[in-house]
Design brief:
This protein is an alpha+beta fold and 149 residues long. Helix content is 34%, strand content 45%. The protein has four helices and seven strands; from the N terminus they run αααββαβββββ.
């Protein structure tokens, strides 16, 4: 009997130690996106997004701010044409806010293309928990050459 209790305790303890927090699962979805970019894996990339996801970039041309829209499929298609390792976006998780099935994540980043610095900025993600899995519903980012932290 003691042996069964000890085994049960060890199994239960291992489950607690390896259990993923809600914040960890949100970060895992975002990390999936950037891993897929680096690997040129369009299927893994599209899997990180909700079916109705919106992607936008805030740009600046000659001092005039604009917003560019892109579909997930177009983004995935462009990524799959790149050599493996070419698109390397290095992020820092600065803020994660969660309210039930909604999460907001702020990630400053530096982007390297073929190992050379290209630009930096901030990603703002909105994720939704759909069918038990976090999916990116909205992603908007800024892009600039400097200043970068």
């Amino acid at each position: 009997m003691k042996r069964i209790i000890a085994i049960s305790f060890l199994l239960f303890s291992g489950t607690i130690v390896s259990a993923q927090t809600v914040e960890d699962s949100i970060k895992a979805t975002i990390n999936q996106l950037f891993t897929a970019m680096k690997e040129g894996d369009s299927a893994k990339l599209t899997d990180a997004f909700a079916d109705s996801a919106i992607l936008q970039t805030i740009g600046n041309r000659a001092g005039k701010i604009f917003i560019r829209n892109e579909s997930v499929l177009a983004f995935a298609s462009s990524i799959k044409t790149l050599p493996k390792g070419a698109a390397d976006e290095r992020i820092t998780f600065e803020t994660v806010k969660i309210d039930g099935p909604l999460a907001l994540v702020w990630t400053p980043y530096q982007f390297y293309f073929q190992e050379k610095f290209s630009h930096c900025g901030v990603n703002s993600f909105h994720l939704v928990r759909l069918n038990g899995k976090w999916k990116i519903q909205y992603l908007i980012d800024t892009r600039r050459k400097e200043p970068c932290k």
